[in-house]
Amino acid sequence: QAGADKGTLLFFKPVLTGDEPSDVLQYRATNPEFPQQSTADQFYDEPQWESYRRLGEHSARNAFRFLEDQPRGPGANPVDTLFHKAVQHWQAGLDARDDASDPTVLSDRVARFETEFRQEAPAWLRAELFPELGIAPTGNPSPRNPEDELTALLLMMGLVEILEDTWRLARLDSLWSHPTNQGWMAWMHRWSATPTFRHWWPVLKSFGSYGFGKFVQTRLGVTYNPEDDRSGSPHPATPAQPGLRIRRFQPDRDAGGLITRRWHQQFGSPFNAQDRLAFVYELLPSAAPGQPDPAPIQVALARVNPVPAAGTAGDSGPSFHWDAPDLFIPPALEGGGFIGRFLRAVIAELGRIDPGATLHVTLTESAGLQPGRVRTDAASRARRVQQIELYKSQGFTLVHPPASGGPDQLKRRPAPAK
To answer: Per DSSP, what are the bridge partners of residue 304?
Structure first.
């Protein structure tokens, strides 16, 4: 069925890019047709066989390098995770914009941005960028006013667009250590080291591509705190790393909060958690030097329907059910990398509530359709495939092919008792 579960084929074409092991390049020097030699001769000698094997190993290591820093949650399916991340990492890009393909135009954009920065940036932000000047405020700094904070955020949004174009144009994923890119890397490190950039990075990440976000994390060192984001854990933010935390929804505290207002705006009705388990996912920003810890920022919301054993067909014990839109992240934050972590945090919380429960999710549409129907345009089908890949990477399986026009359903059984 179009738009349901879909296989992913990883196709490796043997080519040389210049960074292969020396023995592979040496074999190419004496065999110019390598690695596109005719298959008419099936009897490879040992050097030929070993050269193809080494080239395949080199290609696979480069293609799957993103797995080196990929966390594995309990119950996650490593095979589905590999293909899910490969689709994200190696997604075909859109054609480059004309203004991003000319180095002189990019340099002009940087110069204009730096002029705007000198004119508009608050004094404390300029001090963060050039700590060598020793102009950082001393003593007990006064609280920053909201207007300056907004100015700083808007400047950071413009900066992220220039940083991503620089990353793409200079091919920094593979050439970050090249001598001609040392200046660009030093420039990017200076900006990414500022407390303001790190404070807002979880939000700024939503404005960039997946590949650029991974580059900022791995090469510029702007990451979340690796501590568990479990309910009730200590404040996991550090001066250099923001943190994330899941907790139970509290109506008196959260009913008028940012995330519930976004829910109302998205779905046209207030968030209703009656007779359900509800969770709030919070970003814990890193504090600027000399400033108090900032208030948590609500970035996601979930509601889950607990079902007793007697009310769950096909399950031997209790279960938790939800529709895909019930795990809610505002569209403006969808590119921030929150959804995978949020899903893992919800799974962990439900496992603490009832380790023997089965989890069910139905991939219903968010709004605008009759119940039980799904959109069939190409973009909606692709979105459902992405949702299925996400849930399968966390140990869910498709229950059965849906009825014609009906939504897909996935299930995650409890881990067997040890």
So the answer is: 277
What's the pTM value of the predicted model, to 2 decimals?
0.63
Distance CA 260, CA 252 (A): 12
Measure the CA–CA gap between 218 and 214, rounded to whole angstroms: 6
The pLDDT tens digits of the residues spanning 17-48 come to 888 888 999 999 999 899 988 878 778 889 89
What are residue 243's DSSP bridge partners?
284
Q: Which two tokens stand for residue 264?
A: 């109302």
Residue 20: Cβ within 10 Å count: 20
In whole angstroms, what is the distance from residue 393 CA to residue 77 CA? 5
DSSP secondary structure string, 321-355?
EEEGGGEE--GGGGGGTHHHHHHHHHHHHHHHH-T
Cβ-based burial of 308 (10 A; exposed 0-12, middle 13-18, buried ≥19): exposed
Which residues on neighbouring strands pair with residue 281, listed in sequence order?
Answer: 246, 300
Coil, strand or helix at 319? strand
End-to-end CA distance of the chain: 38
Phi, psi of 413 (to 5 degrees): -80, 155
Rounded Cα–Cα distance for residues 9 and 405 (Å): 26
